[in-house]
Amino acid sequence: MSKRRPYVRPMAGWWRKNPFFVEYMIHEGTALFVAAYALILLTGLVYLAHGEAAWNVWLEGLKNPWYIAFHWLALAAMCYHTYTWFKIMPRTMPPVIVGGKRLPDFAITGSGLAVAVTASLAMFGLVWGMAR
Amino acid sequence: MSENQRIIEIEVLRYHPEKDKAPYQQVFQVPFTDDMSVLQGVQYIKDYLDGSLSFRWSCRMAICGSCGMMINGEPSLSCETFLRDYYPARVRVEALAHFPIERDLVINMEGFIEKLESIQPYIIPKEPRTLAQGEYLQTPAQLGAYEQFSSCINCMLCYAACPQFGLNSEFVGPAAMALLHRYNVDSRDGGKAERMELVNSEEGVFNCTAVGYCSEVCPKHVDPANAVNQNKTNSAADYFMRFLTPKGGAK
Ligand code: SF4
Ligand code: FES
């Protein structure tokens, strides 16, 4: 009879075993903030549909210090998400050949981040301009 | 042995199926010199301390891909990892993660071999070619499209780095997918449609959640995560192609 008895190690708690996996889990976790924020905006839309009075109630609600604290937290989470998202981007796309040479990873990550920052600032400026 | 001989502790995960119910740690005191790799450390154990220790190795120069182990929790080639970098702390060595342990540091790689076979790792010509037609010619750009993915040495470090493979051993996984991609993007090859069926399948690329650690640990800079993720796009394109062309896309 065969003496073989391959031992399969358990996977429980796998993501705590390596700093790389911890970072991955934080990255995935910050996506929840993105989802939560989408829900908040969606609620605002529902209130808006109910007329101006309802909309103002929603706006007033946003001034709650807990809500403001959440906004800061969500902003931090989204910044981290954006950073790790573009960090992994070179691994997810076909090679970009520029002038016969392959674009290095940092150039791809860098341009991704630059676009994200520019788009966010433009959006911020636009909304700021409309609100005044 | 010289006066200033240093001793490092090597903790090994042992498992002998004929007597052990489960793996356990065993610590060895190993005298070492600055030029000694972790592989040489475990070889010392086998030669002088415990002859029953089992592990795989061959080339000692990071080219055969046999000596992969978890070293302090990181998938590494033990022949290119040096004891001096851990001293005076203890070094922990363990069989490659996510694979069944056959004995001590030896893993069961049957599943991986089957996967390598399943991707048809050879050129499937577009059409029969006669000797008179001579050899295939490729431009440097055509070579560049697949060259990096052909450097794989089958060390399986990327599998030990992939939690999705650990959770579902059916997943084709990084190295096999990199090799599949290597043939699919080779200008001489015509087997893409056949291989895409595997890419699109339950065992295929969509098991990957872009953790990316596989590419981090790869000793040959194959970047298997890139091959896997490029094929997510290919798979999606393949899916939509079937609606556009009667013969397009895999079945
Ligand atoms: S892709 Fe890299 S890590 Fe994976 S088996 Fe090949 S050489 Fe090893
Ligand atoms: S012994 Fe060949 S790769 Fe380490």
How would you characterize the overall build of this protein?
The complex is a heterodimer of chains A (132) and B (251). By secondary structure, chain A is mainly alpha-helical. Chain A has a single domain (14-131), classed as Fumarate reductase/succinate dehydrogenase, transmembrane subunit (3 helical TM bundles of succinate and fumarate reductases, Up-down Bundle), CATH 1.20.1300. Chain A is built from four helices and two strands. Chain A has helices at 19-49, 52-62, 65-92, 105-131, and strands at 97-98, 101-102. In chain A, strands 1-2 form a two-stranded antiparallel sheet. In chain A, a hairpin with a 2-residue loop joins β1 and β2 (101-102). In chain A, α1 (19-49) runs antiparallel to α2, α1 packs across α3 (65-92) and α3 (65-92) runs antiparallel to α4 (105-131). The model of chain A has no long low-confidence stretch (mean pLDDT 92). In chain B, 40% of the residues are buried. The model of chain B has no long low-confidence stretch (mean pLDDT 93). With 251 residues, chain B is an alpha+beta fold. Chain B folds into two domains: 6-107, Beta-grasp domain (Ubiquitin-like (UB roll)); 110-241, Alpha-helical ferredoxin (Fumarate Reductase Iron-sulfur Protein, Chain B, domain 2, Orthogonal Bundle). In chain B, a hairpin with a 2-residue loop joins β3 and β4. Chain B has helices at residues 38-49, 110-118, 140-146, 157-160, 163-167, 174-184, 192-200, 213-217, 224-244, and strands spanning 6-14, 24-32, 68-71, 74-77, 91-94, 101-103, 106-107. Chain A binds chain B through residues 3-9, 11, 14-15, 17-18, 20-21, 24, 28, 88, 90-94, 97, 100, 102, and chain B through 15, 17-18, 22-23, 73-74, 97-98, 100-102, 108, 141, 144, 163, 166-167, 209-213, 215-216, 223, 225-226, 229-230, 232-233. The structure holds iron/sulfur cluster and FE2/S2 (inorganic) cluster (FES). Iron/sulfur cluster (SF4) binds at residues 152-158, 174-175, 178, 218-220, 222, 224 of chain B.
